Structures are given as C-alpha cells and as structure tokens.
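pasting for ref
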Amino acid sequence: MRLFRHQVKWEQRVFWRSREAAGFVFLFPILLFTLLTAVYNGHIYGHPASWALLAGMIGYGAANTAFAGLAITMVIRRESGVLKRIRATPLPPATYLLAVLVSTFIVFLIETVLIVAIGRVLFSVAVPDRPFSMLVLLAIGAVAFAALGLGLSGYVRSAEGSSAVVNFVYLPMAIISGTFFTPKEYPGFLRAIAEVLPLTYITKATRDVMVRHQHIWSVAGSLAIVLGWCVIGLIAAIRGFRWQPREG
C-alpha cells in the first residue's frame, strides 16, 4: 500500500509537470465545452444545449483522458525504456499499472468537477442530484476506456506514431458517437457504427444520470455494453501490452 500511494503521487507529479499532457488531456475538454456551449443555442435531445453538451463533454473527457492520453503515455514510456526500467525494479507490475489507472481517474475526476462548475456558473446547468450514481458512472467509464487505451498501446509500434494512431481512432469516435451533437441526421451507416461504439453508451448514460436524473441501475443496459468493451480492452491488453520497446 505504501508503494502504491508513492507511485500515485509520482504519477500525479509527472502529469501536472507536463505542459503537453495538462494541455491536451486536461484542459482541452474544458476549453472545448466552453466554446461549444457559447456557440450552440436551442435544445439538444429535448434539453437546453448547454445541459446536453455538458454530459457529452464528460463522456468525451473519459475517452480523451483515459483512452487517448493513457495510450499515448504508455507507448512513449515503453519506447523510451521507462517501462523496461520500472519492470526491473522491486515495484510489482500490477501496483504500477493500478497506480497509473488511479492517477488517470483522479485527473478525469478533477476535469469533470471543473466542467460541471463552469456549466453551473456560466450557463446555469443544474448540478447532478445523483452524486453516487454519477461517481460510479465516471469510474466505469474511466476503467473501460483505460482498458481500451492499454489494449491499443500494445499495437502501436512507435512513440512518433502514437498520437496519430490514437487520434485516428478516438476523434472520429467522438464525432460519430454524438458527443457534440445529435447523430439523428447522420447517414444510416454512421448511425449503425455509432450503435456499437462505447462512447455512445457512456455519453447516453451520462445524459440520463445528469440531465434526466436517473439512478445508476436505470442505465444498466448502456453500462453493460461499456463493460463489454472493457473486457475487449483487457483481452487486447493481456495479449499485446509490452514492457520492452518494440523492435522495427
């Protein structure tokens, strides 16, 4: 436990000292929410645009922080030899990975609190009145996307290409999943793709809990699909995650 706490503190220190990580992973969803909410008027999904966008940006933040940010970080650490050196220390691999995941969730949680605060102060968005359901939902979303991020990292060959590969996956997913606007007007094939993406369901569940004030058990169907993707990510991580730099 002492090693775990120390590693979490180290992960937090490294993250907040990195301007690139803090800018891309932490600040970008907050800035994007502020800009989109300032531009959009009217209603989305039958609710004020700011309310729907707030829930959507929390879902986007899960993908951006726990999936994209984590995948890129782990590839860079692997290819620079950091993971290899950590593997050679007395720190258990499971403790290290758990500390990375907990640190990622802390960043995501702080980011979510700030997005909700900005929505409340600037756009009069209601504060979620199901805090426990919201916390469980955030945890499930972060774990699922972190598993997918770890799974993808094993198949990215170079640190230089990590950002391109990850962005190629998660940016289209964010758009197709209806994070920023309703996909009802999308062509049929895009709607079909959206129906299988995990971000579609974590965003839908977030809107149900935040905007429609439902309990966590009311969104069990959406969470089951998200957890299914979590299992896929774990299988990919077990099969492909590497501590050694890839050759060639």
